[in-house]
Predict the 3D structure of the following.
Amino acid sequence: MEEQIAALAAELAALKAASAATNTMFAETYYYLTIPLMILIHAGFLSYEMGATRQKHVLASGIKNILAFAFCVPTFYYFGWFTYWAWTPGLIPSAETWQTGIDFANPVGEVMGPYVGDNATGVFWGAFTMFAATTASIMSGALIERIRIVAFTILAVVLGSFAWVVGAAWGWNAGGWLVTDWGYHDFGAAGVVHMVAGFFALGVLINLGPRIGKFNADGSANDLSGHSLPMVLIGLMLIIVGFWGFLMACVIVPGEGWSWYTDTFATIYGTPTTLSALSFNILMGFAGGIIGAWAFTRDPFWMMSGALGGIISVAAGMDLYWPPMAFAAGFAGAAMMKPIAGWIQGLGIDDAVGAFTIHGALGLWGVLAVGIFASGYPGLQGDAGTIASTSFIGQALGALMMALCGFVPGYGLSLIMKMMGVLRVGEAAELAGLDPSKVPSTAYPEGITPSAASAE
C-alpha cells in the first residue's frame, strides 16, 4: 500500500512538473508572437506617415520613423525597463524600488542576458519595448516635413524609454499608486501609451510650429495633402492588424511566472479576463470607429483613422465592456475626431496626421469612459492590499497624470531645443524638400505623377 501511494505521489509530481513546463513554454511563445505582430504596427506607421508626406519629404519621413524604432530598443534595454520597476509603486523612486529595478532590469546582470533558466524576461521585455517604440511612432507623424532628425530621435528616446514608462509604472502595474489608491483601470493602455504619446506630441508641436504654407495671414488653414492616400489607408490597416498583438501583450498568461492564476488569463492589474473579451471588443470598437467616422465625414482618411480611434476609445475598458458598449464607445470617439482636429488647427497648431486627436484626445475619452460606464468595478485582493474600485474621479486623476507625463517633457525638451536652434530644419531646406537637401537618395527616380506634382 505504501509503495502504491509513493508511486502515485511520484506520478503526480511528474505531471505537475510537466504541466509547469508546458505553461512556461506556452507563455514564452505567446509573448514571443506578440512581438512580430506589433512590428506590423511600425510597418503601418511607416506607410501611413510616408503617404501623408508630400513627395519632396517622403524619404526623410521614413528614415525618421525607422530611427525612432531602432533607438527605442537599446535605450529601453539600458534604462526603460529599469524605470518601469524603479518607479513602482510610489510617485518617485525610493531606495527599495530602486533596488527592485536593479533586481528585475540590471542591463549588465544575468536576468537581462541569455540565462536559459529564465523563460519570461526577454520576451516580456520585448513586448514592452514594442510599446515604447509605438509611442515614438505615434508622435512621429505629427511632426513631419520640418523637424530635424537628430532632435526628433532625442525626443523619441525620452518619450519611448522614459515618459510613458513612468506613466506605466503609476497606472499600468498592479502595485502602481494610481491603481492601489485610486482604482485606475486602463487595460489596453489608452492613457498609458496613447494619451502620453499624444500629449507629448502636442507639447512638441507648440514649439515646432506649423509647416511653411499651412496657415495664411488671416489664420485660415491650407490643405497640405500627402502624396499617397492609398499608402495612408494601407498603413492604417496594418496598424489595426498589429493592434491584435499590442492588445494580446496586455494579457497575463495563466501559469506564467508573472500571473496571479493557473487557470485563466488576467489583466496587468491581476483582474481576470479572457481572449474572448478581446475578440468581441476589438472588432466592435473597430467597426464602430469606421462607421462613426464615415457617417460624420464621408472622408476615407478619417474613416480609417476612425478604425484606430475606435479601438483606442474602448482600449481602457476592453476587458469590461459588453460588446455593444464597445461599438457605441468606438462610434462616439470616431464622431469626435474631425471636430477636435478642427479645434486644434484653429489654435494654429499643425498636427499633420491628427496624432493628438486620434491618440491624445481619444485616449482621454477612452480612460474617462471607464469611469462613466464601468465605475465600481472591483479591484483584486493582491500583495499590495485591497485595490480601490474604479471611479470617475480615479480615471480623471489618472488621465491628468498621463497628460502631464506626456506634455511636460515634450514641451520642456522641445522648448530647450528651439532655444538652441536645433529643433527645426532651416527654411530653405524645408521649401526645397528634406529629401533633396538631407537624403542621398530619391524616392521616385522616374519622376512624380501629375497629382503628386500639383500637391507640391
